[in-house]
Amino acid sequence: MTGTNVAWVAGGYLAGTFPSAWIVATVTRATAVLSGSGRTSGERDPHILMAKHVGVGWTVVAATLDVVKGFVYVLVARHVGHLGQGWLALTGVSIVIGHCFPFYLKDMAGRGLAAAAGVLLFLLPVEMTVCGVLIVLGGIARNTSLATTIGLATVPGFAAIQRQPGQMVAMGAGIFAVVMVRRLEGIGEVVRAGISPGRAVLYRCIFDSSGPPTGRGVWDEQRGPAHRGHEQVPPA
């Protein structure tokens, strides 16, 4: 029934809002994370701040919870809700939207990667594995943010090559689009800091950065405190 399917999609949004980072920061009493997190830049992503102030271990816990919420919800939606491919694809996108754009604790919102990973690991495991390998290789090359962008961008293409249903290919493209829109939040601050609009969009969409990424030669022109790129760790 259409009404039931819509309910599953709406439930996906709610599942996506599950505030893993806020829970971990609260449990660990990480006041610097709770007070410093914000939506307008990757530098203020709660996972980035958590890595700085709480440590990698707790950051992994928060990110894992975000992956699990996406994975488990689509699993249940398929096997309990018996959703068709189209509705399941919409549910996957809605989970990532909830993760990126929650209606509460907005400053603790993620930037889409962890929830997307959970959804894709269940619905497009081969494509997500390719994405994950690219991200790992990017980490080795100390350019994880760029690798994350490339990895997510490959998902719909590899899904098409794998002859996945069209709805799943569209889901991969939709998830990538949601992540890009999320990265563009606060871009006005970057422009006001002296970065041209074109470069501001490039930095945000490609590197999820508020300025030139570190160690990239020409990218480092005009570097300064206001143009600092975030660490080469992909915000979740």
Tell me what portion of residues adopts beta-strand conformation. Answer: under 5%
Radius of gyration: 17 Å
- For the secondary structure, the number of strands is 0
Could you say which structural class the secondary elements and strand pairing correspond to?
Answer: mainly alpha
- Which sequence of SSEs, written as H and E, runs from N to C? HHHHHHHHHHHH
Low-confidence stretches: 215-232
What is the share of helical residues?
55-70%
Largest sheet: none
Q: Tell me, what's the shape?
A: globular
Please give the alpha-carbon distance between the first and last residues.
34 Å
How many independent structural domains? 1
Query: Given the structure, what is the number of helices?
Result: 12
Mean pLDDT: 90
Description:
The protein has 236 residues and is an all-alpha fold. It has one domain. Helices cover 67% and strands 0% of the residues. α1 (2-16) runs parallel beside α6 (85-100), α4 (46-53) packs antiparallel against α5 and α5 runs antiparallel to α6. The longest helix has 24 residues, at 56-79. 49% of the residues are buried.
TL;DR?
With 236 residues, this protein is mainly alpha-helical. It has one domain (2-227).
Secondary-structure blueprint of this entry?
Layout: H1 2-16, H2 20-27, H3 31-36, H4 46-53, H5 56-79, H6 85-100, H7 113-123, H8 125-140, H9 144-161, H10 166-183, H11 187-192, H12 197-207
Helix pairs in contact: 1-5, 1-6, 2-5, 4-5, 5-6, 5-7, 6-7, 6-10, 7-8, 7-10, 8-9, 9-10
Descriptive tags:
236 residues, mainly alpha, 0% strand
